[in-house]
Write a structure and sequence with these properties.
It is a single chain. The chain is an alpha+beta fold. The chain folds into three domains: 5-59; 72-213, OB fold (Dihydrolipoamide Acetyltransferase, E2P); 223-282. It has helices at residues 5-26, 36-63, 124-135, 166-172, 188-200, 205-208, 210-213, 223-226, 272-277, and strands spanning 84-89, 94-97, 102-105, 108-109, 139-143, 155-161, 164-165, 177-178, 235-239, 245-248, 267-269, 281-282. The strands form three sheets. Strands 1-2-3-6-5 form a five-stranded mixed β-barrel. Strand 2 and strand 3 (102-105) form a beta hairpin.
Length: 287
């Protein structure tokens, strides 16, 4: 681990001070009799060095998303190499860490199984089981993007099992869909590509769930709207009243009634991947 110059200077100063005191003691019969000022100086130097090392170690963990907003206060046990232990897979895209902290995977969405407002969705149980097989009882590394927590106070993280990005692995095997939620889009292009390949290969939910695999119903934009942009690009990039960027595909529930006002920053996209790369997320009422 890199040690800063400030720490080296503090440790060096303490060593020099101690050496001088011991040499002086040799000339006074071998007894180490420190004056109060000398004792205070030695203790101050030792304390400064140890505190600096602790703070620097904490900062390193902070940078990889291990210690954020008091997660250590909630009892999350972080090993010396920055790993945390998963005690339970709550569902397909949420886990619980040792100490009780919950983590929601960034950039993906699996069918619901535990939301009391919704019925158990197609392939939800399979997605939960797969997540359990991947991470439950294992140590993982967490990576933060921009946002620290969601509205349910869960940590938002990318989860690494060795060299495997679990978020992407669930999408690649057909257990999850790519779900863009800006500004946390660091790996979104990879998730989009993984979803495309899983869908074309009819893996997992893309084969088992009719609603997921059903082709979108063609609903073309009006002539007035099409004239404002390339008419071959039919993905609508809308900005909500709260400023959230949401795109609508042909066949989505709100596609027909959604209009594009380019003066507000709204725009047309030629593909779903293009919209996600630009920072828009898929509308929730899309099939």
């Amino acid at each position: 681990m890199f040690i800063s110059k400030k720490i080296l200077y503090a440790a060096g100063g303490a060593a020099i001070l101690l050496a001088g005191i011991f040499i002086g003691s040799a000339f006074s019969g071998g007894k180490l009799n420190l004056l109060p000022a000398q004792t205070a100086a030695v203790e101050s130097a030792k304390t400064a060095a140890s505190v600096s090392v602790f703070e620097q170690h904490s900062n390193i963990l902070e940078n990889v998303g291990m210690l954020n907003n008091g997660s250590t206060k909630n009892g999350v046990a972080v090993s010396a190499d920055g790993l945390v232990r998963v005690v339970r897979a709550v569902d397909g895209d949420t886990i619980e860490l040792e100490g009780g902290e919950r983590v929601r995977y960034i950039g993906v969405d699996t069918p619901e199984t535990v939301d009391p407002r919704k019925p158990v969705q197609c392939f939800g149980v399979a997605a939960s089981k797969k997540n359990r097989e991947l991470v439950e009882g294992k140590t993982v590394r967490l990576e933060k993007d921009i946002t620290d927590r969601d509205k349910y106070n869960r940590l938002l993280r990318y989860v690494w099992l060795g060299d495997v990005l679990v978020n992407q692995e669930l999408v690649a095997q057909g257990f999850a869909k790519s779900y863009s939620y800006p500004p946390d889009v660091k790996y979104q292009s990879q998730f989009v590509a993984a979803e495309k390949q899983a869908r074309e290969s009819k893996l997992g939910l893309w084969a088992a769930c009719v609603s997921a695999a059903a082709p979108a119903t063609a609903v073309m934009p009006s002539a007035a709207q099409a004239s404002a942009s390339n008419p071959s690009c039919a993905v609508k990039g809308n900005i909500s009243a709260s400023g959230e960027k949401i795109y609508h595909l042909q066949g989505c529930g709100s596609y027909a009634k959604t209009t594009i006002d380019e003066s507000r920053g709204e725009r047309w996209f030629c593909s779903e991947q293009e919209a996600q790369t630009a920072g828009w997320r898929r509308a929730l009422n899309c099939p």
